[in-house]
Design a protein that fits this description.
The protein is built from two helices and six strands.
C-alpha cells in the first residue's frame, strides 16, 4: 500500500535555477530535477535518486555542461534516449 501525503502549494510549483551560462536546472513538482543546456533537457535526477543523461551526442560545449552538472555523482548514470528527457518535461 502506498501512502500519499498532502503536498503544499510550494511543493507543487516548478522552480527554475540558473546553473551557469546557458545552463539551467528545472525542479519539477514530481521531485525530478532536469538539467538543460541552452534550451534542451540533457540530464536529470529522478525522484528515485537515479541519474540519467541523454545518449544523443550534442556539441562539445553541451557535453562539458552535462559533465560539470554530474561532477561528484558516484552512482551510475544511465544513458537514455533524448525523447525520455523531453517526455519528462512534457515536450513530446
Amino acid at each position: 500500500m502506498i501512502t500519499l501525503r498532502k503536498t503544499t502549494e510550494e511543493e507543487r510549483q516548478m522552480k527554475l535555477r540558473q546553473y551557469g551560462s546557458n545552463q539551467t536546472e528545472l525542479s519539477l513538482p514530481c521531485g525530478a530535477v532536469v538539467f538543460f543546456s541552452y534550451e534542451t533537457p540533457v540530464a536529470a535526477l529522478l525522484p528515485s535518486g537515479r541519474y540519467i543523461r541523454t545518449e544523443k551526442k550534442w556539441s562539445v560545449t553541451t557535453s562539458k555542461h552535462i559533465n560539470k552538472w554530474l561532477t561528484g555523482v558516484t552512482s551510475p548514470v544511465e544513458q537514455v534516449p533524448q525523447e525520455e528527457l523531453h517526455r519528462l518535461v512534457g515536450d513530446v
